[in-house]
Amino acid sequence: MIDALRMSLDAQAVFGFILYILVAAALFALFQFIYTRITPHKEFALIRDNNPAAALALGGSLIGFALPASNVIAYSINILDVIVWALIAAVVQLLAFGVTSLVLRGLSARIAKGEMAAAIYAASVAISVGLLNAACMTPAN
């Protein structure tokens, strides 16, 4: 038991975990920062004011980013590979919000007003796009 634990938690494995989790956290924070600056509504102010529509829409986009990013981490060959593909995942997620805004006119204003139907649709699109994005970023070997 102790030998198995030592093999799993050798210095290289622990260092790899720390490196990947720090890079993942930085990419997640960067995506959230960019997303909340690009969208017309102010997510954190709305969430602080107890707007569940804003929380749901932002949460959906974060999940939509994390799905392909986690897939990339699992299948990456190195940290640079993770960064490049996670940035691609972020761009796809930002484009998904843009397209959703075209399909559902006034999306940002509706979220700001607390319209749950708009937020549910936006979150559903973000998560769906994230799932499709993750599948496309899985090696076919």
Quick structural summary:
By secondary structure, the chain is mainly alpha-helical. 83% of the residues lie in helices and 0% in strands.
How is the topology of this model organized?
Layout: H1 2-8, H2 11-38, H3 43-48, H4 52-75, H5 79-103, H6 107-112, H7 116-136
Structure explained in plain terms:
The structure is a single chain. With 141 residues, the chain is mainly α. It has one domain (2-136). It has seven helices and no strands. The protein has helices at residues 2-8, 11-38, 43-48, 52-75, 79-103, 107-112, 116-136. It is elongated and about 55 Å long. The chain starts with a helix and ends in a 5-residue tail after the last helix. The mean pLDDT is 94.
What keyword list fits this structure?
single chain; 141 residues
Radius of gyration: 18 Å
Could you give a short account of the major beta sheet?
none
Number of helices: 7
Average pLDDT confidence is: 94
Q: How does the helix and strand content classify structurally?
A: mainly alpha
Helix % is over 70%
Provide the domain count: 1
- Poorly predicted runs of 5 or more residues: none
Roughly how many Å apart are the termini?
A: 34 Å
Q: How would the global form be characterised?
A: elongated
What is the chain-wise order of helices and strands?
A: HHHHHHH
Strand content: under 5%
What is the total tally of β strands? 0
